[in-house]
Amino acid sequence: MTFTDRARRLRAWLGELARFGTVGLLAFVVDIGLMNLLRFGPGELLGPKPLTAKVISVSVAMLVAWLGNRYWTFAAKRSAPTAAARSRELVQFVAVNLVGMAIGVGCLAISHYLLGFTSPLADNISANGVGLVLGTAFRYLAYRYWVFTGDGADAPPPPEPPVAAPSSDRDASELR
Fold first, then answer.
1. Do residues 127 and 54 lie in contact, with contact meaning Cβ atoms separated by under 8 Å?
2. In this model, does residue 152 exceed pLDDT 70?
3. At what angle do helices 83-109 and 50-68 cross, to 10 degrees?
4. pLDDT at 71 over 90
5. Tell me, what's the pLDDT at 48?
């Protein structure tokens, strides 16, 4: 593999990682915002039920992540354009997110119920700090190597690379 090939693969991977991070950041904002709204917002709908609030917020954030990752981050690796292939991909996506959610909820449960850290700050650190980091690492690897492994047959074609216009500089054209 040449240096140019390695550089191209690295740029592609960094772009994928940046898209994944952007989608994840948006899902993170949805997750944290909704969890805190349900627990501490007007009426404190789920004030004494932190795990229920977290499950609901993660479920909504999962929908945001599905759309972003399927149609942007891993668009080139979507499944074949058949109903069965898309269904398999969706089931795998949900399964990965359920494990990811269990990681975040597990961190919250240990902190809140086992260790007795029940303040809003402690709940956010355990669920949205520690749990999020561990869950995000797991999700990225699972999406990349298990969920989005198709050939991208239903993905839009990638944009054409820009072509440099011929130089009007006479000296530059003589060197060719």
1. yes
2. no
3. 150
4. no
5. 85
* pLDDT tier at 75, thresholds 50, 70, 90: confident
Percentage of the chain exceeding pLDDT 90: 21
Task: State how far the alpha carbon of 109 is from the alpha carbons of 16, 75, 114, 115, 133, in Å.
Answer: 32, 35, 7, 9, 16
Average pLDDT for 112-120 = 90
Which of 71, 74, 136, 125 lies closest to 101 in space, CA to CA? 136
DSSP structure string for the chain? --HHHHHHHHHHHHHHHHHHHHHHHHHHHHHHHHHHHHHHSGGGTTTT-HHHHHHHHHHHHHHHHHHHIIIIITGGGPPPSSHHHHHHHHHHHHHHHHHHHHHHHHHHHIIIIIS---SHHHHHHIIIIIHHHHHHHHHHHHIIIIIS-S--TTSPPPPPPP-PPPP--HHHHHH-
